[in-house]
Amino acid sequence: MFDNFPLWPERASTAAGNVDALFIFLLIVSGLMTLLIFTALVYFAARYRHRRGVLAEQIEGSTPLELTWSVIPFFVFMAIFAWGAAVYFKGRTPPRDSTEVYVVAKQWMWKLEHAEGQREINELHVPVGRDVKLIMTSQDVIHSFFVPAFRMKQDVVPGRYTVAWFHATKAGTYHLFCAEYCGTQHSGMIGSIVVMEPSQFEAWMNGGTTGPLSVSGEKIFAELGCVTCHRGDAQGRGPNLQGIFGKPVQLENGRTVTADENYIRESILDPGAKIVSGFKPVMPTFQGLVSEEQLNALVAYVKSLSHSLATPTGTAAATAQDNSKAPGSAPGSQVQ
Ligand code: CUA
After folding, report:
1. Which of 119, 131, 163, 295 has the largest CB neighbor count within 10 A?
2. pLDDT digit string (tens) for 214-234?
């Protein structure tokens, strides 16, 4: 309804309408309350102004009045809470089967890497109409990934992964900002999200790929010697990683954790933090030995072990691709 009235940035994601509706509702409630308070203030100031010989009559409380001004705001605030929580949780929870993009922030640029292997700097190409999950980390200080047109903002923190997602609804080029002061050139840490029609995106994807991220990860996994302990036959000194991603893991101290991105990351950088039940803390740390990009590749590789149990390298033919998804597109470009 406000599309031709540029008070709001362009709306280009499924979240944008929900966020704006809530924001407009908050504005209207605040506006009405302000109006109510100031009208009453002016009215009472005039009505009960000081007059010679007229003394004010003191009133001791009024239950109906107090109940009214407590109960009505209670319901208004509960509505805001419920609505806000619904929008928040939807924005926080990436749908299953989202396309994954790894983001590494550094002073002062955005490095993006698609699960299929494409790397980009300060630019992210995505198709219209697909859920895109961003798995983000920083190489130095805290940054913040902010795309106004998607109504999406998420801090990007060194030492861990944070996650955000969006579903673009309109082709176009949209601003990407860093929204956390991160040093001298913070204001220059900008980029663009290029949303393309699916066919154009396929064409873009097929140009100049370096191979899936999980395949680079597998190579690093071999180079670092991880395979000698994490073997597929359960004879290794480390846990078998086949199929663990997203599953609960029983730890030596009795606790259970879910094997998500942050768990894998931590297990590489600080292997002693969470020892899997039945294993000894013998793994050395890889802190300082692997870059953020290599970490992302390793995480993508461990994930790929769960997507296609038969062929961990992600040769797509074996994973029975859903043909209805992208007819005519080259098979084999998808790992997921
Ligand atoms: Cu990065 Cu501000």
Report:
1. 295
2. 878 888 887 887 877 887 776
Q: How many angstroms is it from 146 CA to the middle of ligand 1?
A: 10
pLDDT digits (tens, 9 = 90+) for 52-110: 887 878 888 889 999 999 999 999 999 999 999 999 999 889 998 899 999 999 998 99
Through-space distance between the first and last CA atoms of the chain, rounded to whole angstroms? 38
Ligand 1 binding pocket (C-beta < 6 A) is 108, 143, 178, 180-182, 186, 189
What's the confidence (pLDDT) of residue 335?
A: 36
Nearest CA to ligand 1 atom 1: 143
Range of the domain at 125: 99-205
**How far is Cα 33 from Cα 45, in angstroms, rounded to an integer?**
18
Tell which wins on pLDDT, 23 or 227: 23
Pair of tokens at residue 27: 């504005």
Same domain, yes or no: 304 and 219: yes
Cβ within 8 Å of residue 112, ≥6 positions away: 101, 102, 103, 104, 119, 120, 121, 123, 124
What stretch of H or E contains 24? helix 14-47
Task: Name the residue with tokens 């993508």.
Answer: 300
Same domain, 196 and 262: no
Instruction: Calculate how far, in angstroms, residue 185's C-alpha sits from the geometric centre of ligand 1.
Output: 8
**In this structure, what CATH number is given to the domain that contains residue 295?**
1.10.760.10
55 Cα–ligand 1 center, Å: 62
Integer-rounded Cα radius of gyration of the chain: 27
Q: How far is the CA of 206 from the centre of ligand 1 (A)?
A: 31
Ligand 1 atom at minimum distance from 142 CA: 1
321 has a pLDDT exceeding 50: no
